Amino acid sequence: DRDVTGVQTCALPICADAGGRAARRCLRVLAYADAERLVALGRSHARRLAATERVATELDLIRVLLHPGVRLRDPGELTRDLTDLCAEAQRLGLDAELSGGLSLLARAYHWGWGDIPRARALMGRATQLIESAREPNLEPLLESARCLAYLEMDMDRTARLFDELAALHTLAAQSVQYQWGLGLVQAWRGDVPSARAALGQAIELASGRGDHWATFECTARLALLELETGDIQAAGSLADPLAPLAAKLGEGSERPYATAISALVAVARLEHGAVADLDRVINELERIDARFLVPDLQGIAAELRYRAGDLDGAHHRAILAARLADEVVRPFETARAQALLACITAQKGDLDRSSSHLRAVDDASGGLPGHVKELRQEAERLLAARRRDRGDDDTWP
Question: What is the 3-state secondary structure (H, E, C) of 91-116?
Fold first, then answer.
């Protein structure tokens, strides 16, 4: 009996690990129900392990569940399980596991509940633990760095972190997480060529590894970047594969988000009915509680209408973007909308209101994105020109 029990005990880590590896394989081939079943089996073995090994193994298994095709949009009891595992990791002094668990909790609160402030707080704590580690685990470090960029947290500091991570050379160059995060950082800096290159590399790496979610997210972000910079043809080429990619990720927000980006491209092309199509899909995103995705869409749409000369349509959409960005705590999108409103009201000759909107373009944590700075500078030029036309000697501000 002791021998049999010993064999069974030794087999538990192997069984739990095998369940995780098989579940990750299922994600690549879109077998999401099988992935969830295998994770449940792996967790049943993991619960019988010693505490230290159990915490690490369960976190690894739950990571599989926090995928759009599985449980990311409806984490349910997973947030409670992760909270318990984080508490256990803290009690045992397992800093690496604690930081990993906090990162997973941040993902659940961001994507599952749309609670960006809570997600940012959790990622801040996770990052502190990683930075204080003597020898931080590389992959969690890269993923956490990417999460900081994705959540737009203290971007000046996050950008410096990516500068430091560049010293990893080949390891960084071959990391989806690093290239994805670097693309976000370079877009924030306003270095569009570098952002294109990094996001393109992330797409290539993720696609080669069967990571459909990362492929979708990086392609979507690059399409939005091209819309921001006015390259409609490039944006259209990137928008085309989004719907097939979204279809691989289950019934989450990816399908309507892909449709919304395609609608934005149609708005940029001035296609008939495109604005109405965009509004319908934005309503769908709000209905399924994916409101944190909407400020970017409304902000870019507002700028597209502004460039097309539709000042009233642009003004209405920018007001919506600013209001929702405040509600979901997206300060960069609030700043984008306010800078655009300053441009629109200056064009309309409402100089007092334009000045008010400019004052509302606060430098968010870590500074403003490059595109927002350009919009603010455009508004300042327009306001100064209008004042000169009016014979007003006062200068901004």
Answer: HHCCHHHHHHHHHHHHHHHHHHCCCH
Assign residue 93 a region (left: φ > 0; alpha: ψ between -120 and 50; beta: otherwise): left
Is the pLDDT assigned to residue 384 strictly greater than 90? yes
229 in Cβ contact with 251 (< 8 Å): no
Cα separation, 129 vs 124, whole angstroms? 9
Q: Which two tokens stand for residue 281?
A: 């899909």
Q: How far apart are CA 257 and CA 119, in angstroms?
A: 21
Q: CA 110, CA 8: separation in Å to the nearest integer?
A: 39
Other C-beta atoms closer than 10 Å to the C-beta of 14 total 10
Helices (H) and strands (E) in the chain, counts: 21, 0
User: pTM value?
Assistant: 0.88
User: If we measure between CA atoms, which residue out of 135, 129, 117 comes closest to residue 93?
Assistant: 129
Summarised one tens digit per residue, pLDDT across range 109-162 is: 999 888 999 999 999 999 888 878 766 667 878 888 999 999 999 899 999 999
